[in-house]
């Protein structure tokens, strides 16, 4: 089998070989990094093998929050505090007692958090300040817990690797005492801060609120079927397509279902109204029913609404379901009906099937039209291909903007400068009618200068206007469970208009501890992928590229969805500007958008933001001393992206970033070597090195001498988990009879590329002599993985 793969790979060396195996977990990362980087051979001048490593550690505990998931955060912190008792840290009883107090206070506060968050949503300023202070302390508790678990992991590794001398020094009494003292002080300082916050809560008279209340979403206005078609711009083709579908006679099912799907404010309801009021549709169906479903998908409620639509009067109150379903079926059975279920959010198939079963008695040719933002709703309900609604064209958008911004019969817009400014505004509304209407009404009777002002602050107008698009889009966010809220908020750090790799996003989420598997044997990447697909189904993302099997590889975010992510992200996220110095003490994640021509300003921009967990820098040239300062100043980093920054070396102090999970160094062509201290990063999950073409090796331990830099270094690393990707394998040095990967039962993905993936357009001829064949055979024999 392995021989066949090897030959295939040689034959098609432009493509990658990817083997996937499902295996259990655990990791030893110290030796892991040293050894893997040995693939980077010094001798090869042209293209050195590069490796991408992604290791999943078991912990995914520390959490962050944007709007509306503080409760969830507190809950996770409590679990972390409780599990401290099981870690072998040899803490004295005084420290343990402090931790217990901390846990009790945390639990007390958690009890009122739902009520507090509700009050915050109703714009209670004092509560918002109180929650902000609490959030800050919880972040610190989270860092503390991460410190404890890192320490526990370190002790485990030292013991496991039987580093006798080190273990003796490490576990010496004086060392233990110093550690306990240091941590004791930290715990008690945090405990005091939390006590104060707990005491302050009494001022607000919060109530212990039930669990469900967080997911309560504000009720929307009921929709109705009337529409003034003169006000509708475009949509004729969409209407024709759906009407044609409804009027066709060759149908297999009695009742068919077509969903109209698209993001909030795109015009789904409006299109459904146009279809509902179409003359031919009116003549075709015996019965037409318009029902606004919205958030509450309760069978009884919906049946009552359908009866009301069919009979013109509400059924009596308190009727049994049995009676209601009889009335419903009496009214629709045997009739060819059209039922519009507007604004459906229910994604539970069982609930849908219960309703559908009551509706199946219609005559052949009956139709249900559903409008929804969710791809999953479409998936569970549709019997035909869903109608995916697109944005209005630019000229249609301009017509709508004009209609809203100028008085009827007014010709002010023609040939004036308004049109040029208007077209730029239109560009930013991305064809979403609700956004165009909202901005259009702001522009009503305004001067040309005021139009320019609006154009320059379009995001502000889109996000802040009470009656604008943001509250409408935010409904989608309010429907998300807490774990997806923080994942979505993190997407505010993605640059607008970029196609983003799904795999990268999942790694970023993992680094922040956002991914919470439901059971211990679930793989973090797999759970992360489920999160991604959930958000994709709910229209937060759009597919940009799929692989041959239909898996999404890259995605984009609609501009308005990006604005939504920014508006819900909260104070801990910051799109930093070198000029504005807008990062502050509360900032935990920072993205620099500006070019880095003045990289020295980064430090002054970030000087208050001591507790950063994410730093994403733009491409550019980062001054080496700034790079060093960044690494030594921000000890709490989880993700550090220094890709394409032009740095030549990583400082030794990188080893002190013990919380670091993701280090991205892609495209740093001048980076010569990695410091040995990298091996101290026990929590590191992802190290991206592709395109670091000048990298030699990780010569961390010179004393080890001759063996360093050879494939055999892999032999001892049998606890490896996760993914290894090795490219330019043709440069590897083979060793007869070796077996580097066979014992690595926890390896899940292995990606081997014969040539350099970064240069796949390079069509340099491969010498096909016997010696080279023999060499490659040996390399692949040695890399044979574990058999399932
Ligand atoms: N083609 C159009 N021309 C003019 N106005 C439109 C058009 N489509 C929609 N609108 C207006 O935009 C607003 C939003 O439209 P609609 O309610 O149909 O969106 P939706 O997709 O159903 O949103 P949601 O997901 O929130 O239910 C409404 O005020 C509607 O009148
Ligand atoms: Mg709607």
Outline the structure in words.
The chain has 788 residues and is of the alpha/beta class. It contains 27 helices and 18 strands. The strands form three sheets. Strands 1-18-17-2-16-15-14-13-12-11 form a ten-stranded mixed beta sheet, with helices on one face. A hairpin with a 5-residue loop joins β9 (542-546) and β10. The chain is 43% helix and 11% strand. Mean pLDDT is 79; it is low at 1-65 and 698-710. It has five domains: 2-59 and 587-598 and 612-782, no CATH class; 70-215, no CATH class; 229-388, P-loop containing nucleotide triphosphate hydrolases (Rossmann fold), CATH 3.40.50.300; 394-471, no CATH class; 479-568, Arc Repressor Mutant, subunit A (Orthogonal Bundle), CATH 1.10.10.10. 40% of the residues are buried. Bound molecules: adenosine-5'-triphosphate and magnesium ion. Adenosine-5'-triphosphate is lined by residues 231-235, 262, 264-270, 343, 371, 373, 400, 433-434, 437, 472. The site of magnesium ion has 5 residues, from α9 and β5. This is Disease resistance protein RGA3. Residues 772-788 have a biased composition (Basic and acidic residues). InterPro entries: Apaf_helical (IPR042197), LRR_dom_sf (IPR032675), LRR_R13L4/SHOC2-like (IPR055414), NB-ARC (IPR002182), P-loop_NTPase (IPR027417), Rx_N (IPR041118), WH-like_DNA-bd_sf (IPR036388), WHD_DRP (IPR058922). Residues 78-164 form the Disease resistance N-terminal domain. One of its GO terms (molecular function) is ATP binding.
